[in-house]
Amino acid sequence: MERAVVRCVPSEPKLSLRLVLPDGSARHMQRDQAEPLGRALARIATNAAKGRGKAGKKSKKARAEGGAEGEEAEALPAVQLLSRDGAVVAAEVPNAAAWQDGAVLYIGDARYRVERNPPALTELSLPRSLLAGFPVCPKVSAEFAAPQHCLFRWFRQQRPSEAAGEEAGEGWVETAAAGRVFTPPNALVGLRLKLRCTPGDGERRYGPAREVESSGPVEAGPGSCTFDGRHLYTQRVCGPGSVRAVSYNILADAYAQTEFSRTVLYPYCAPYALEIDYRQNLLKKELAGYSADLICLQEVDKSVFADSLTPALDAFGLEGLFRIKEKQHEGLATFYRRNKFRLLSQHDIAFSQALLSEPLHGELCQQLARYPLVQEKVLQRSSVLQVSVLQSTIDPSRKLCVANTHLYWHPKGGNIRLIQIAVAMSHIKHVACDLYPSIPVIFCGDFNSTPSSGAYNFISSGGIAEDHEDWISNGEEERTIKQLPVSLVVYMAPDPAIQPETSPSVWKLLGRILGD
């Protein structure tokens, strides 16, 4: 029995129908979902008659002499749709209701099994850089399917010694690996990879498979990495009573490729080590190896988030959220473990916009207005705060506020960081105390601060000395507010049911210093 594939999405006005007619011609029809079935069947009959006429086309003389035979060739074939229980679907039934999975379409003597919204791949790609010993995580986008239900088969390029008469590299050998993530061993260095993916859904339906080949061969990895030893402590995801959080600034590609970066900031790095394709391999392996429940990243390129980190960490059970900086190409990313949390709400802000427009920061904004030079610099910054409220999948009564930020970087920008952290703490207090009373907070980020800095003191104690050096971090002419509003102090209520992971400090659980 042939297939008639129907794609019908409620939010779209039309449905599509794909099938191969009895004459062998492929057809792709678009019909209104509200249109009566009879009209769609009439169009199918017309198309089938045209195809049959072309297949049996005769010379003008033969058609003239054909008489009744010619008329019979042009007759429309009988077309009808039967439901799964064998009943004829009435012509007046709307297309959206008529074309159900398992129904049977008859075109003359030909039969077609209707497959409504079968699993289908919309994108399948492999990363450009492949390193031995590092996980290869394909980007998989599917419709009516989910990556966790797809079937994956990995192949490696045939070696010249295995060619057996074929041209070297033309054949493929299936590996023993199965699953979405494949870590090529050293034995595959110099060989390309191929992935065959069959999309599937939770009802054990499978769509047509697609294949993708790597653009280049597997390359040798860097050997042992600094994070290998740390991974020994994080081989498993921590239990339901604990939360493990990881925070990193992963260095946006634009900042790694400048002349200043190559000659001043990172002169000790070989050029290849600063290339984003190479760095992404290390990032994905390190982050996945921590088996974290929460990952907060800064300086994340938009394309890196979408094309690299999201498919890689999704394969390890993590869902990602992204907030780009104002008028920038990079921003913040927060990932959370799907089987532990679900996203309840998001409360992201841009510091400059929030300071001007939200009544919550009115007192601070009024004080800052007395210092135009500093105010201008604060409002020019593109820094943002990412705030996500997560709910436990095991106990919905338990919630967690996860904040992530990247404060202004300049060594002389301590006064600007003070304003930014004041806005951040006020906003977090609003979310964790007003919107969701007394939920615990984990605050991660690149604060560009040290334990002696004003931002750190304000986070940990809720106050800052009037004579702190950060007030004049860029000179006396930029001396600013001597006292941040006391109302900005945030009390981070700990949840005794959620305990921070206490393995060696390869992550930042800054929420711990905000407790009592």
Automatic annotation (TrEMBL):
GO terms for cellular component: mitochondrion. Residues 247-466 form the Endonuclease/exonuclease/phosphatase domain. Gene3D superfamilies: Endonuclease/exonuclease/phosphatase. Residues 118-219 form the 2',5'-phosphodiesterase 12-like N-terminal domain. Residues 51-61 have a biased composition (Basic residues). It holds the Pfam family Exo_endo_phos. GO terms for biological process: nuclear-transcribed mRNA catabolic process, deadenylation-dependent decay. Residues 48-71 are annotated as: Disordered. GO terms for molecular function: 3'-5'-RNA exonuclease activity. This is Phosphodiesterase 12. The lineage of its organism: Eukaryota, Metazoa, Chordata, Craniata, Vertebrata.
